[in-house]
Amino acid sequence: MTQATQPKTHSTTAAFEALKCKECGAEYELKASHVCEFCFGPLEVKYDYEFLRRTVTRETIQAGPNSIWRYRPFLPVATNTPIDVGTGMTPLVQSNRLARRLGLKKLYIKNDAVNMPTLSFKDRVVSVALTRAQELGFTTVSCASTGNLANSTAAIAAHAGLDCCVFIPSDLEAGKVMGTLIYNPTVMSVHGNYDQVNRLCSEVANTHGWGFVNINLRPYYSEGSKTLGYEVAEQLGWQLPDHIVAPLASGSLFTKIYKGFQEFVEVGLVDAKPVRFSGAQAEGCSPIAKAFEEGRDFISPVKPNTIAKSIAIGNPADGVYAIDIARKTNGTITSVNDAEIIEGIKLLAETEGIFTETAGGTTIAVLKKLVEAGKIDPEEVTVVYITGNGLKTQEAVQGYVGEPFTIEPKLDSFERALERSKTLDRLEWQQVLV
Ligand SMILES: *Cc1c(COP(=O)(O)O)cnc(C)c1O
Ligand SMILES: [Zn+2]
User: Where along the sequence do coiled-coil regions lie (predicted)?
Assistant: First the structure.
């Protein structure tokens, strides 16, 4: 649990140079730290873009692995052998039926509900954070999680042979808890909400010398989300979309998709083009949406109360940066209530065959709301980010889906049930019509 001396970082294909304060620009060594000593601003990884421009092409990327590591020169790790558990390169699905239902012509779904190994976008950030944790000499890794992050940290730590202790709020869905315990980490289930868990973890990070992926390793961790920008650009045939819609918890993912697009323009991999950034929150925890709607540039923390637990962060670290991006790109940040979130989950499942969790339901419901408000042009190439899998949050839709017909293993029993199912269909249609 000691931190090794600074490793050599500028290998032949690594371009990361320093940690840099997002507020005052002060630069720091590439260690495990996340806050500026002068102004307490967040630290971010800085790269040598000239070097990237000279050494990276579409072809070098396409010759790489079928995972996030095809973009390794843009990620803050020095090793040539990162932890690769097949994370990334998830499908970008062109939507037909959902698009038609909403009245959109060019809608794409980035489907991280099937990301490897734990079925959420968090596998991206954790693959990067744990690779960097190993480089920095950490032997125990940890996180403050709303659920998916604990799944990813525990799974990828198991794969890499790292000791792991994760912290979660005690009211998480059963699937999220089991999806962590199975990897046999130490799990601390904390009586409190995510923001309280996070505060506790900041203290533990200071006293135990562990690598907390989203605290002292946060500058490296958050870079993993850029791959959601890179992949979409590559999968669209090396072009940027016109509009993206993504969920916001801390706001990090949202800001890093933006950084990913910008970097691809900067090094000449795609043409520059304005991309609108719109964000989705759950009404029961919508501090970023509220600040956006009220035209504020500061966040008033809230106490979360929503079924969308994976994005329930009351005091979002990157909220102000997310607001800034939505404003300057002519996007918007808005929220939907729990009933709309459930409808969003069902709508995506019934039109596209994708079962997403509450965060995805939030994003689909916000997409629908934006279309209805005329804030998405039907001709825009719109990408909606689905970040997690519905099998992990089954509680959310319990009671809102149909039930199986229980029958005897006999033909007449089946025929009777089939008749009943047709009657039920008719009844549902009658309900729709009245
Ligand atoms: C964590 C999470 C997010 C958002 O993460 P931030 O980077 O903190 O905004 C979105 N969707 C799912 C499913 C998540 O688990
Ligand atoms: Zn600073």
Answer: none
Neighbours of 58 (CB within 10 A): 12
Looking from the CA of residue 357, the nearest atom of ligand 1 is: 13
329 neighbors 335 (Cβ within 8 angstroms): no
* CA-248 nearest atom, ligand 1: 9
Could you read off the pLDDT of 364-378 as tens digits, one per residue?
999 999 999 999 999
State how far the Cα of 349 lies from the Cα of 355, in Å rounded to an integer. Answer: 5
Query: How far is the C-alpha of 345 from the C-alpha of 353, rounded, in Å?
Result: 11
Mean pLDDT within 115-133: 98
**Per-residue pLDDT at 97 exceeds 60:** yes
Largest CA distance in the chain: 78
What pTM was estimated for this model as a whole? 0.95
Domain ranges of the chain: 16-74, 92-116+225-396, 121-218
- Report CA(247)–ligand 1 centroid distance (Å): 7
Q: Report the topology of domain 92-116+225-396.
A: Rossmann fold (3.40.50)
DSSP-derived secondary structure for 355-417: -B-HHHHHHHHHHHHHHHTT-S-TTSEEEEEE-BBGGGGGGGGTTSS--PPP--SSHHHHHHH
Q: How confident is the model at residue 42 (pLDDT cuts 50, 70, 90)?
A: very high
Which ligand sits closest to the CA of 27? 2
Instruction: State the DSSP code for 286.
Output: -
Same fold? 92-116+225-396, 121-218? yes
For ligand 1, whether the C-beta of 253 sits within 6 Å is yes
User: Residue 383 is encoded by which pair of tokens?
Assistant: 């990408």
Query: In a mutational test of the pocket of ligand 1, which residue from 110, 118, 122 has the highest number of ligand atoms less than 8 Å from its CB?
Result: 122
Domain 121-218 listed as CATH 1.20.1440.230: no
Q: Could you tell me if 261 and 233 are in contact, meaning their C-beta atoms sit under 8 angstroms apart? A: yes
167: helix, strand or coil: strand
Cβ(115) to ligand 1 under 6 A?
no
Q: Which residues have beta carbons under 5 A from ligand 2 (an ion)?
A: 21, 23-24, 26, 36, 38-39, 41
pLDDT of residue 9: 44
CA distances from 238 to 57, 75, 115, 265, 407 (A): 11, 19, 21, 10, 52
